[in-house]
């Protein structure tokens, strides 16, 4: 088949989740899809993009990926795509979360605006597979069916009575019914009976087919999404639907809005997927996919286990020792530690909810916070002082800003710093320092070709991140 005859495919990666059940490693400011989990070297988001880009060939023409996410994570998306050497076709930024049906609708409307009707291959950004060849083969079969107008959903052959997933009841290649998450007895019956598959949340269909199905089953979502998208703003690859209009979009999942209504009404097929799939929905799932020793223990980082079995230890910043514990999860980060029974790992979300109610910082951010220009790590703090380690990428700069309540001392550790203080601009090399008085406009830039690292010592009556008044910003922040 020539390239002109190949089926056009748009990879659509939904990357807007918060991953609360993998706290404390996953937080709303840096959620699980951008983390490296399960013993790999790429983040879950990067793996998802790579799997979809691998569809190219054998009559499939894969376009640049379309990512649906949110404002807070937009530069993480670009950084991680850049590490893959992949340029996005578009990054659709939802003003607020409205579940997966509106997310997919934005991608379909983007295709419509481009005058195209590609096959959308839609996947969450937080899943893993161990057999990528089998995954690619199954998805190519799904693309061929979708090119002819079918709605295709990926079904996972269950290997245990799982109560955490929804199920698909299949009649051959046809989807007969979608089933809610079952209790244990029902899940055991499904496994024994056969014909039931886990719903992977991945589906394949033409953009026009999705929009037509949504108009049929949920015209309110379709209309509200069209209104919000019609008033969108473009900022390079970033596409921002109108915030006020998007707030009126009903929040609904793809399954509830369309898929569960399709059997017996529209042509909906299921493509079986046997590729070692896992959605990493909780620490139990991370343990399942991680390399293990002879005692069933999985470790990441500096960990020592003695007389322990089937235990997961994830150490981020220090040595973690575990003695005499079976079926336990231990996750250490610089500012929080989780210890839980493996089978209770779904309940981590209750801790996150409590942190949110108490408005604690551990709910959303790590001690080390990523920014579009680099990162900062709050390594120590007191009532009127705070010490940060700061890294600025080559060519990047912080905003031109000032603080009402704090002064700052900067000491360069490595690289070169261009510092603006008031009307003066100076260059600082390693071991040199400067002082930023309270209330003075200032800016930090890395003019070099290597990362700039410095130590910042803050002093003042209030040291919160909201004491920043921005006058100019490269990244459109206010």
Protein described:
The chain is of the alpha/beta class and 478 residues long. The protein has 3 domains: 3-273, Spore Coat Polysaccharide Biosynthesis Protein SpsA, Chain A, CATH 3.90.550.10; 290-354, no CATH class; 368-472, Jelly Rolls (Sandwich), CATH 2.60.120.10. Helices cover 23% and strands 33% of the residues. The protein has 11 helices and 29 strands. Helix 1 (44-53) crosses helix 2. The longest helix has 16 residues, at 132-147. The termini are far apart.
List the helices and strands and how they pair.
Blueprint (H helix, E strand, L loop, with lengths): L6 E8 L29 H10 L6 E3 L3 E5 L3 H11 L5 E5 L5 H14 L5 E6 L7 H16 L3 E6 L10 E5 L2 E6 L4 H10 L2 E11 H11 L1 H12 L2 E3 L2 E3 L2 H5 L6 H4 L10 E6 L9 H7 L8 E3 L2 E4 L5 E4 L4 E4 L4 E6 L2 E6 L6 H10 L10 E4 L2 E8 L3 E8 L7 E3 L3 E9 L2 E5 L2 E5 L4 E4 L5 E4 L6 E9 L8 E4 L6
Parallel strand pairs: 1-2, 1-3, 1-5, 3-4, 4-11, 6-12, 13-15, 14-16, 15-17
Antiparallel strand pairs: 5-9, 6-9, 7-8, 7-9, 10-11, 17-18, 19-20, 20-21, 21-28, 22-29, 23-26, 23-28, 24-25, 24-27
């Amino acid at each position: 088949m020539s390239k002109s005859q190949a089926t056009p495919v748009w990879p659509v990666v939904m990357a807007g989740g918060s991953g609360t059940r993998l706290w404390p490693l996953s937080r709303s400011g840096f959620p699980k899809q951008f983390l490296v989990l399960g013993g790999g070297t790429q983040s879950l988001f990067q793996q998802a993009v790579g799997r979809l880009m691998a569809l190219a060939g054998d009559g499939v023409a894969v376009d640049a990926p379309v990512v649906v996410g949110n404002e807070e994570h937009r530069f993480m998306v670009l950084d991680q795509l850049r590490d893959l050497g992949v340029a996005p076709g578009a990054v659709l930024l939802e003003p607020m979360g409205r579940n997966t049906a509106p997310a997919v609708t934005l991608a379909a409307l983007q295709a419509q605006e481009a005058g195209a009707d590609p096959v959308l291959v839609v996947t969450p950004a937080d899943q893993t597979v161990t057999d990528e060849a089998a995954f690619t083969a199954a998805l190519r079969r799904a693309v061929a069916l979708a090119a002819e107008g079918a709605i295709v959903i990926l079904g996972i052959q269950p290997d245990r009575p799982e109560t955490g997933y929804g199920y698909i009841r299949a009649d051959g290649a046809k989807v007969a019914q979608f089933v809610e998450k079952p209790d244990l007895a029902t899940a055991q019956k499904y496994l024994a009976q056969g014909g039931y598959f886990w719903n992977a949340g991945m589906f394949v269909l033409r953009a026009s087919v999705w929009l037509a199905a949504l108009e049929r089953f949920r015209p309110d979502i379709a209309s509200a999404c069209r209104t919000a998208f019609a008033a969108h703003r473009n900022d390079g690859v970033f596409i921002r639907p109108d915030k006020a209009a998007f707030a009126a979009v009903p929040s609904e999942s793809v399954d509830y809005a369309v898929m569960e209504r399709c059997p017996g009404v529209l042509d909906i097929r299921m493509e079986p997927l046997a590729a070692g799939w896992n959605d990493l929905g909780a620490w139990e799932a991370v343990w399942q996919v991680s390399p293990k020793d002879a005692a069933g223990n999985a470790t990441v980082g500096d960990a020592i286990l003695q007389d322990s079995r089937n235990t997961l230890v994830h150490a981020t910043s220090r040595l973690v020792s575990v003695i005499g514990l079976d079926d336990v999860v231990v996750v250490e980060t610089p500012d929080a530690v989780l210890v839980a029974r493996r089978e209770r790992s779904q309940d981590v979300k209750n801790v996150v909810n409590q942190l949110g109610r108490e408005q604690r910082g551990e709910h959303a951010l790590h001690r080390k916070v990523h920014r579009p220009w680099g990162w900062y790590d709050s390594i120590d703090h007191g009532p009127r002082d705070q010490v940060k380690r700061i890294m600025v990428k080559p060519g990047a700069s912080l905003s031109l800003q000032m603080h009402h309540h704090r002064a700052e001392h900067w000491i360069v550790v490595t690289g070169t710093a261009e510092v603006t203080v008031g009307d003066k601009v100076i260059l600082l090399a390693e071991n040199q320092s400067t002082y930023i008085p309270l209330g003075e406009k200032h800016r930090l830039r890395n003019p070099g070709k290597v990362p700039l690292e410095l130590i910042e010592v803050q002093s003042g009556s209030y040291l919160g991140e909201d004491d920043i008044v921005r006058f100019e910003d490269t990244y459109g922040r206010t």
